[in-house]
Write a structure and sequence with these properties.
heterodimer, A: 325 residues, mainly beta, 4-stranded antiparallel β-sheet, B: 191 residues, two-stranded antiparallel sheet, 5 helices
Chain lengths: 325, 191
């Protein structure tokens, strides 16, 4: 009888200690269940990439603490020009920034030409500045609903992406509007731009044609100055080789080899695609950005170094190709 | 000459009169306070700020009602009417169609209808919505954030100590005047 009591007491004691350990573990390890969301929207499986695709690494950054960064571009000397709200900064070779131009309204996009002229896109107006900082021209031939999101400057022409009107305005370099590209036209097999939010980027190819992102369809479309659509590629997918959400890629830039550098929102990624749309490299993955970062504007210098404007961390981040051992 | 100390002498009648007056004043004060308190309480309701919402899922699980008083609402003027809607399709959807296995909503409460190529309209079926915010997270991450949660006052029982507000990690809940009970997005929110 005494033995039985002893066994019963031992079992009770072991059970009590076990319970204490269990509760202690759940409390201290945060596994109480309260923090778990049974309805979690989980995209973690799409945030990675095969390491063999990651050919770039962050090599440097330029801080703009307290500035609301909006746009960046490089001039023909590979000098960086950065817009933060109404201010435009020049960055020297030592990565020191100096205030250069102040505009009346916030800057949405920037571009430069081979003479060093700077094209500044505000909401519905383009300002052209001389390299000495003086204003040279003001282009306002835009529809009332215009929201200018990107400018690309060629030898004798300028393309301006307008997310509000869902077209690309094609100007000569003295600011005369020649035509508008990309309006929906089933006869010419032009699908029309789908732009749910104001992310609508473009860049000029070496042959003078313009590559335009159709962000609602996740495609790149190549237009001649005549307005003919001559090529397109794209893939809708959350996987690493595609674009997802309602407006991706948000920004693009072109490397000296004619490859496309892309940035996305939702899944914050920077990638490099061949001119035909094949994924070549991953520059940066979502883990390298703050969740919810949008507006990762891009520029590529003559050596292929990629500059990424990170509005959330208030800095320009510079990515170079990893050395192959 | 009358002795002044006689005036300040408290008589039984005076004591009774003052006591009754005091009790009446206190009573009136207490009743007024109670009425003001009650009327104030009736004019304040719970609401959640969509800008503070972190889509934790607790609106679906923590409400004292079996079917939560929190529902998803849609700001149509903010919506992009996208074919690939982050709030409608699962991240790994095989097709961008209306098949149940491709829908993100666990109860199929979002209805999709074709407008014109490539635009689709998304409507919330409130009877099916459980307020889990899964679509809110998807829409906010990849889209314009037109889907968001609100406490529906035709359902909310306006608990003094709202169980969701108590556990909300984003501290998104606050009391609102009952004549302005919603925190709406888009043009509706501007009026």
């Amino acid at each position: 009888m005494q033995n039985r009591n002893h066994i019963f007491s031992s079992i009770t004691l072991i059970a009590a200690v076990g319970l204490l350990i269990f509760y202690g573990f759940t409390i201290f390890s945060g596994r109480s269940g309260r923090d778990e969301n049974p309805f979690e929207y989980d995209v973690d499986s799409f945030k990675g990439a095969d390491s063999s695709l990651i050919h770039y690494a962050e090599v440097q950054s330029i801080d703009f603490e307290g500035k609301k960064l909006t746009a960046l571009t490089l001039n023909f000397k590979d000098e960086l020009i950065v817009a933060a709200g109404r201010e435009i900064f020049r960055i020297d070779s030592m990565f020191q920034s100096s205030l250069w131009i102040t505009t009346q309204y916030p800057v949405r996009c920037l571009a430069t030409d081979i003479e060093g002229l700077v094209y500044v896109g505000l909401e519905n107006i383009v300002l052209v500045y001389h390299p000495d900082g003086s204003k040279q021209a003001e282009w306002d031939d835009f529809p009332r609903q215009a929201i200018l999101t990107s400018i690309a400057v060629g030898d004798s022409h300028v393309y301006v992406a307008d997310a509000g009107s869902r077209v690309v305005h094609y100007f000569n370099n003295s600011g005369k509007l020649i035509t508008r590209l990309g309006e929906k036209d089933p006869v010419r097999n032009i699908p029309g731009f789908v732009i749910p939010s104001p992310y609508f980027d473009l860049c000029i190819a070496k042959n003078g044609s313009v590559w335009v992102v159709n962000p609602g369809r996740h495609t790149f479309e190549n237009y001649l100055p005549s307005g003919d659509l001559v090529a397109q590629w794209g893939k809708t997918s959350m996987r690493i080789d595609g674009f997802s959400g309602c407006c991706n890629p948000t920004h693009i830039a072109m490397t000296p080899q004619g490859e496309f550098v892309t940035s996305e929102k939702g899944l914050e990624r920077i990638k490099v695609y061949s001119p035909a749309g094949q994924l070549l490299s991953v520059v940066a993955l979502p883990e390298q950005f703050d969740e919810g970062t949008v507006g990762l504007d891009l520029a590529v210098d003559s050596k292929g170094v990629i500059y990424v404007l990170d509005p959330s961390r208030e800095r320009i981040r510079i990515f170079g190709k990893k050395e192959v051992s | 000459m009358e002795n002044p100390s006689n005036n300040s002498k408290v008589t039984r009648r005076r004591f009774m009169r003052d006591s009754v007056r005091s009790v009446l004043a206190l009573g009136i004060g207490a009743v007024s306070g109670l009425l003001i308190g009650r009327s104030t309480k009736q004019n304040i309701v719970w609401q959640l700020d969509p800008e503070k919402c972190v889509q934790c899922g607790r609106c679906a699980t923590d409400c004292v009602l079996d079917e939560s008083a929190v529902k998803c609402v849609h700001a149509y003027d903010v919506c992009g009417y996208c074919e690939l809607c982050g709030g409608y399709s699962k991240p790994d959807a095989h097709e961008l169609d209306t098949a149940a296995e491709n829908q993100l909503c666990p109860t199929g409460a979002i209805q999709r209808s074709f407008i014109e190529d490539p635009y689709f309209e998304y409507t919330i079926n409130e009877k099916l919505c459980i307020g889990c915010a899964k679509c809110v997270k998807g829409c906010g991450s990849f889209g314009n954030g037109s889907l968001y949660l609100q406490v529906r006052h035709d359902r909310c029982v306006n608990c003094n100590d709202c169980a969701i507000a108590r556990n909300c990690p984003g501290e998104a809940f606050s009391r609102m005047p009952s004549d302005r009970p919603y925190l709406l997005k888009g043009e509706q929110g501007l009026t």
